[in-house]
Design brief:
4-stranded mixed beta sheet; Glutaredoxin; 216 residues; two-stranded antiparallel ribbon; 9 helices
Length: 216
C-alpha cells in the first residue's frame, strides 16, 4: 500500500498531521507493507526567493488579523502541537519561499533519507527557529539529516528537482487539494487536513480491505 502525503515545511498543521498519521500507522497491523511518500506543496510559491518576512506580519496581512489575534492563534497552535509531543515556538519566526527546501526533500527521497530530512526541517523551523530559506542553513540541516553536503550544494546551486516539485503541486491541484496536509491512500482514498489519529486508522483499514478485495 502506498500513501502520498502533500505538505509544506512551513505549515504548522502539516507537522501535527504527520505525527497523528504516524501514530495510526504504528498501530496498523500491516504497517510493514506500507510505503509513505512525502510530496511537495507550496502554500505561497509567489514569494521571492531569498526574501523573508516575519511570520506574524504575514498572517496579519493575509487574514486581516490584529497582532493580538495572531498571538492567540499561535498560542492555540502551540498547545495543539504539545498534545502531539511537539514543541512549537512560533513567536519570532520568519517565512519565505520554500522551493529550495522542497528540492532538497526530493534529493533526500532519492537517497533514502526523505523522512529524516523532512523531520529535521520541521523541527528546525517550528522548534528551533532556524531558517529554511537560505542556502547555508538548508545545507547544514540537510547534512544533519544525513545528506552529502556536496550533493546539497549542487542542488542548491542549480535547478535540480524543481520540475519534480512543480509536478507534485500540479498533481495535488488536480486531486482538488487547495491546502495541506493532504493524504492519499493507495491512489484511492483522500484525507484532507490534520485529522485525528483514529480517522487515519479507519482509512488505513479501509484501504487495506479494498486492496485485498481487488486482488481476489
Amino acid at each position: 500500500m502506498r500513501i502520498d502525503i502533500w505538505s509544506d515545511v512551513v505549515c504548522p498543521w502539516c507537522y501535527v498531521g504527520k505525527r497523528r498519521f504516524e501514530r495510526a500507522l504504528a498501530e496498523f497491523e500491516h504497517r510493514d507493507d506500507v510505503q509513505v511518500v512525502h510530496r511537495s506543496f507550496q502554500l505561497d510559491p509567489t514569494r521571492p526567493k531569498g526574501q523573508t518576512q516575519k511570520r506574524r506580519e504575514m498572517l496579519m496581512a493575509k487574514y486581516r488579523l490584529t497582532a493580538a489575534q495572531v498571538q492567540g492563534l499561535d498560542a492555540q497552535m502551540e498547545q495543539t502541537a504539545a498534545a502531539e509531543g511537539l514543541e512549537y515556538h512560533l513567536g519570532d519566526g520568519v517565512t519565505g519561499n520554500t522551493l529550495d527546501a522542497h528540492r532538497l526533500l526530493h534529493l533526500a527521497a532519492a537517497r533514502g533519507r526523505q523522512d529524516e530530512a523532512l523531520e529535521r526541517f520541521y523541527r528546525a523551523y517550528f522548534t528551533e527557529g532556524r531558517s529554511l530559506f537560505d542556502s547555508p542553513s538548508l545545507t547544514a540541516l540537510a547534512a544533519e539529516a544525513g545528506l552529502d553536503e556536496r550533493e546539497v550544494h549542487d542542488v542548491l546551486d542549480g535547478d535540480a528537482y524543481a520540475a519534480a516539485v512543480a509536478t507534485d503541486i500540479r498533481e495535488a491541484q488536480a486531486l482538488g487539494a487547495n491546502g495541506v496536509p493532504f493524504f492519499v491512500f493507495d491512489h484511492r482514498f483522500g484525507v484532507s487536513g490534520a485529522q485525528a489519529s483514529d480517522v487515519f486508522t479507519q482509512v488505513l483499514a479501509r484501504a487495506r480491505e479494498n486492496r485485498v478485495a481487488s486482488s481476489r
